[in-house]
Amino acid sequence: MLLPHPTKNIYLYCTMQTIVVTGGAGYIGSHTIIELLTQTKLTVVSVDNYSNSNASAYERVKKITGKDFQKLEFDLCDKTALNQQLSAIKNIAGIIHFAAFKSVPDSVADPLKYYHNNIASLVNILDFAKNNHVTNFIFSSSCSVYGNANELPVTENTPLQKAESPYGHTKQIGEDLIEFFCKANPEFKAVVLRYFNPVGAHVTGLNGELPISRPNNLAPIITQTAVGKNSLTVFGNDFNTRDGYCVRDYIHVSDIADAHLKAFDLIEQNRNKQQLSLYNLGTGNGVSVLEVIHAFEKMSETKLNYKVGPRREGDVIAVYANNDKAKTELNWLPKYNLDDMMLSAWKWQLTLEKGDY
Ligand code: UD1
After folding, report:
1. Mean pLDDT over residues 114-133, rounded?
2. Secondary element (H or E) of residue 308
3. Residue 24 CB contacts under 8 Å (≥ 6 apart), including other chains
4. 3-state SS assignment for residue 239
5. How far apart are the first and last CA of the chain?
6. How high does pLDDT run on average in the chain?
7. In which band, very low, low, confident or very high, does the pLDDT at 16 lie, cut at 50, 70 and 90?
8. Ligand 1, residues at Cβ distance < 6 Å
9. Mean pLDDT, residues 259-272
C-alpha cells in the first residue's frame, strides 16, 4: 500500500512490502536499488550470481544511500536454488527482473549461452511468481527488439523486425513469453521496459558500470580509453545517417532506474490500462557515436584517441525512441542530458582510477 510523502512528491510504501531485484549487483540493478532505498520504504532483496557483476556494487549502494538490504547469491537458472531461497522471503510485492546477459557481440559469438541464460532464468522466475502469487512483475527489455525499424523514432506500436543479434532475439522471446503468461494468468500484471542505450553513472560518481571482463559497450570503452586502459575503435562511419556514424538514444542510468519505481507504482496501484504494459525508455534524441565522443571530450576536457574500423556484426544502424507513452502513463521524465551522462561516466572512471570503490 502507498502513502503520500508529507513534503516530497514521492510515495512511501508501507513497511513490510518486499521487492525482489534480480541482477541487483549489476549496472542498472544497483542504480535501481539506490532509487528504491532513497525514494521508497520497500524492503529490497537482491539476487545475483555475479556472473557479470561484483558484490562490491552493494557496498557502493550502501555508501550512497546509508542503507543496507538483503542479498542472495544463486543462479536463476537453478530452479531448485531459486525456489528454496526465494520461498523464504515474506511479503513479496513485486519482482524487478534485470538478470540477463546483455552484450550484442558476445551473443553473436555464443548464441546458446544467451538463449539458455536469458530464457531459462525468465521461465524460472515467472514460475516462482505464479506458484507464490506474486502478481507484479517488471521486465528489462531492450530497444534491440525493434531490429532495423521501419520508422523512426520508434513507438511501442512500431512493428518489430527480425532481431539483429541473439541478444535482441532473447528479449523478443522474453516479451512474447510474458505476453502468453499474462493471458494464462489474468491476475498477473507486467510492465516491459524497453531500454534504449543506458549510460552514465550515479551523479556522485560513486557507482557506475563495472563489467567483469573487457566491456563491449561504448561509454565504458570511451572512459577507459581516456585513461589509457583501452583503445576505442568506432564500428563504421559509412552508414546512411546524418554523419555516417551509428545512431542511438543514450539515456542516463539513473533515469532508467527511476522508471522502475514508477512502473512498480503503476501496477501495484492497479492504474495499469493493460495487463501487460510496454514502455520505451529513451530521451527521444538520436545521437551518433561521433556526437557521443565530442560530448565526452567536452565534459572531460580530454582529447580522445580513437580509430574507425569496420562495422560490427549485429549492430542496427539507427534507433531512437518516441517516449510519449512513458511520459504520459508512467509520469516519467528523463532528467539528464548527454553532457550529464558523459560527465557522470567520467567521474565514475576517475573513482575507479583512485581505487576508491
Ligand atoms: C544494445 C541495445 C541496448 C542494450 C545494450 C546492452 C540496440 C540498438 N541497443 O546496445 O538496448 O541496452 O545493447 O549492451 O541493440 N560502438 C563502437 N565501438 C565500440 C563499442 C560500441 O563504435 O567499441 C558503437 C556501436 O557500434 C553502437 C554504439 O557504439 O553504434 C553503441 O554500442 P553499445 O554501447 O555496444 O550498445 P548497443 O549495441 O547499441
Report:
1. 98
2. strand 306-309
3. 30, 32, 33, 44, 46, 47, 48, 57, 58, 71, 98
4. coil
5. 36
6. 95
7. confident
8. 102-104, 142-144, 168, 195-198, 216-218, 221, 232-235, 246, 248, 289, 312, 315-316, 319
9. 98
Distances (CA, A) of 263 to 154, 172, 230, 323, 327: 20, 20, 37, 14, 11
pTM of the predicted model as reported, rounded to 2 decimal places:
0.95
State pLDDT tens for residues 286-316. 999 999 999 999 999 999 999 999 999 888 8
Q: Is the pLDDT of residue 9 over 60?
A: no
| DSSP single-letter state for residue 182 | H
Q: What one-letter code names the amino acid at 319?
A: V
Q: Which residue among 154, 223, 255, 315 is best mutated to probe the pocket of ligand 1, counting the most ligand atoms within 8 A of its Cβ?
A: 315
How many other C-beta atoms can be found within 10 angstroms of the C-beta atom of residue 16? 12
Let me know if 320 is a catalytic residue: no
Beta bridge partners of 2: 13
More confident residue, 59 or 8: 59
Distance CA 326, CA 240 (A): 29
Q: From atom 6 of ligand 1, which residue's Cα is the shortest distance away?
A: 102
Best substitution site from 213, 217, 230 to test ligand 1's pocket, by max atoms within 8 Å of Cβ?
217
Distance from C-alpha of 253 to C-alpha of 207, rounded to nearest angstrom: 11
**Containing H/E element for 287?**
strand 287-288
What is the DSSP code string of 186-236? TT-EEEEEEE-EEE---TTSS-----SSS--SHHHHHHHHHTTS--EEEE-
C-alpha distances (whole Å) from 298 to each of 59, 220, 268, 338 are: 31, 16, 42, 11
Task: Point out the catalytic residue in the list 58, 114, 146, 167.
Answer: 167
Query: Residue 12: which H helix or E strand, with range?
Result: strand 11-13
For atom 17 of ligand 1, which residue has the closest CA? 234
Nearest residue by C-alpha to atom 25 in ligand 1: 235
d(CA 126, CA 139): 11
d(CA 211, CA 56): 12
Residue-wise pLDDT tens digits, 136-188: 999 999 999 999 899 999 999 999 999 999 999 999 999 999 999 999 999 99
